[in-house]
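Objective 1b: paired records.
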Amino acid sequence: MQNEIPIIQKVYDFYCELYLAAEKMPKKDKYTLGEKLSRTTLDLMELLIMAGYADKEAKNIFLGKANAKLELLKILIRLAEEIKAINTKKYLLLQEKLQETGRMLGGWLRSLR
């Protein structure tokens, strides 16, 4: 299923980049903000996988929750950059991946309506 849904691969790639960024975070941020970012990303991936297997009604619910997780990720990444837990270059890379994921998720949601 993962190979059939490109958005899952996009979130997977985002997590790999986030993991590398979180390793370099200051210790005080790594175990708070870094952990929250990682957990939220994994939650997003789980919701997308569940949506891939769900019927149309449940798919809408899972994708709505996934959209909320995505918005939270965008805010947390911006926060990480503002408090200098990640550098600007990494922030721009991660934000670009989130924007692409958002476009894909929006398209999936529109296709259900």
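Objective 1b, second protein:
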Amino acid sequence: MPSFYQDELFSVLSERGEVDLRVVFARGTSSDRLQLGWTEAPRHYPHVTLSGKFSLWDAARIAWTDRKRLHIVNGIWAEPSFAVALCVLAMARSRFVVYAEAPEPRQSQARMRALLQRLFGGWVGRRALGMLAVSHFAEQFYVELGFDAERVFPFGYFRASNHGPQIGSRSRASERSEVIFVGQLIHRKGVDFLLEAMVPLFDRHSDLFLSVLGAGVEAQVLETCAHALGVQDRVNFEGTIGSDKIQARLVSADVLVLPSRWDGWGMVVNEALSAGVPVIASDRCGAADLVRQGVNGYVFRSEDVEDLRQCLRSFLENADKRSVMRSAAASTGRAVSAEAVAPYLIECLKHMTGESSARPAPPWLQLPTSQSASH
């Protein structure tokens, strides 16, 4: 479906003039995404949306009609119409690339369904030109599925650099330290143990506050939990804001925490880094690939409250290093902008098709890996 961040990458690709871009959407933006604050803007690139009732036929028709083009297909089996398109492309010996996250490991499904997915995924993988893997989780999963490791390239989700405020616009209404979470208020996001991790830190740091942005089925549960822990005066539940306003909100925070039990990526990590805000993320977030320990943030063991607390403590008790960490975060943010990633994507495709022998390196992996290197 359309998303604000993919729109920006598509727009940058189209503006570069190096590719003849066409985008096919399976459906329009869902109501639950709109309720989360996703905004829709005019799309300045060629695009079509499959007709809902006949989407399978529509996908097959487009795949066959455009079989001589190079296709990038989002996912393998999650979207039935795209699975049909992959079948047509594979049987037509078309050139295609898969762009996907790893599935959530805790998702339970019938054994036969899982077996059929793996068989189909392996069949697709052996016929694909390559893979754009959303995080190292996807790299590992799809290589095991049957994709050629030499043709699997690190990838993610990206936003344009011109969508938010300049980092220099950061202002402080007070001297308080603000930890911020942005996302769905659901069990998978792990806000419950973020609250637990922060309780003793509130006692130690009188200027410390937690801001929680988002909505979801656990919103009331989490507010009740904050009251039960006696920290309701230090935790502010702000509800949802539009996707076009998130970075402006992030820029005034000290650190973003994404404590997910699982996140195939976690777009808010990009947005925080682009705002020059350090990130503390669990090691079950795909976007933790962007975090360099002690440089632009910290990575902790998922569901380990003490490890998360230690990361927060390290950040809070080294206030003199915050400006250096903000600078390093901003550097990473520039490296994961759509403008920086578009040429990398094009070089990946050239390498997959044999037009270039040089394997490109992701721009975000070419940054300093120590604090001293970021000065």
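Residues 4-161+337-365 form a domain with the Rossmann fold fold (CATH 3.40.50.2000). The chain is about 40% helix and 15% strand.
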